[in-house]
Amino acid sequence: MIPTKTRIAILGAGMSGLCMAMQLRKKGIDDFVILEKADNVGGTWRENRYPNIACDVPSHVYSFSFELNPNWSHSYSGGAEILQYCENCVDKYGLAEFIHYGQEVKAARFEDECWKIETQDGAQLQADVVVSGLGGLHLPNHFSAEGLEEYNGRRFHTAQWDEDYDLTGKRVAMIGTGASAAQALPGIAPLAKEVTVFQRKAAWVFPRMAAEISDERRALFNKHPWLMRLYRWSLWLQMDLLGILSLRRDGLLSKRLKQAALDHLEASVSDPEIRAKLTPDYAAGCKRRVIADDYLTMFNRDNVHLVTDGIERIEANGIRDKLGNLHEIDVLIEATGFKPFDITDYVEVCGRDGQQLKEVWKDKVDSFRTMMVPGFPNFFMMLGPNSATGHTSALIMIESTVNYVIKCLELMNSRGLQHLDPDPQVVAQYNGRLQRDMKKMVFSGGCDAWYTDDNDYNFTLWPYSAARFVYEQNKVDPDEFRVSAR
User: Fold this and answer.
1) Which domains does the chain have, with CATH numbers?
2) What is d(CA 467, CA 464) in angstroms, rounded to the nearest whole number?
3) Average pLDDT of 453-460?
């Protein structure tokens, strides 16, 4: 049974929610609950089950710094192994008793100076603090085109993979050429009769240089954990330094980044005409980069076709492109990503005086320190606006945000505070700085990325190094808040 009252309510048991819970346990704080919609933990890694799903960040960086794993089998872990890592964390930190499964959050409303949470099945919970671990990419962004309702074949999104559907000998259409498409295509192409990939814009693709981790290295890391930590730090710093230098507009490594992708394309695709179609026409890094070894080589196969002419309409048995060609298919796979910061699409979040987060974000999505919004006291978001990076691990950002929340809780306890609510003037200055410095980065280049809104306002990415994110989240300044005593 869900308790009627708790100090802290954590929404979601993905990587963010688990990290928050683990750190609370380490601090000896047990007055919290985790509300999870599904029947298991893992979030992204539970939901996404398409072929070859894997992380595009090295395994030893895509793990918590306080819970390193010496037994990763691959330099870039697959989804199943990351899910197992999440389940191991639950066991080690005794989180099972705090997790309430099958409890999808319907609403979180700030009423009577506390948060009232309602689940889809009608359960009610009162909390002083809410930590949303629901993430910024949750709802699949479905493909839309004229005539889609006339289509008679199978259709599913990569995030809602139909594991019972056998692709062997089928004619497959794949919409999209981003990260999920790059991973799924090599698993589909050898099975299918034909795969037709519909590309709106080419992606910059970089080699992963992935490899199995040897038994000897795993044994070494088990015996000498300090070596594993040193290895993680070296990867962390290398990714952060080289990443931020390559993503600066006209930065020291921006031209080298572009050339590395072009060299990879040249080495992977034999047909010069297809290579030309797979060459992006925007700055490398303006859209999310794709990290893959075997994606581009799929276009050398006789049964893989690339269409760049655009989609005119969907018909009963296929897709007609804008040149009038009909591509007959048996199944349509949407590799079209997710809606950014879609929490307000499936959870009603109401702050002080009944203001809705959906209305606050209607014209512009921003936040304070990527996690709070004025008028929503004690409401924290993991991986909130401007917390994503184009070059390193999201878990670094998650840990830093969790560290900030812990420090906020300690501040409230030490000073007898009931609420922390960010000062709107401080928030405006904070976002003004972020957006000013965003213009120095390649991902503010007007390339129609999902990072930005219609006004090229980048509400998704962090415009600095991950090290700076860690530094800025390491201290809580009471003067940045409007506070109220208990």
Assistant:
1) 5-138+341-429+460-485 (3.50.50.60), 142-209+236-336 (3.50.50.60)
2) 8
3) 83
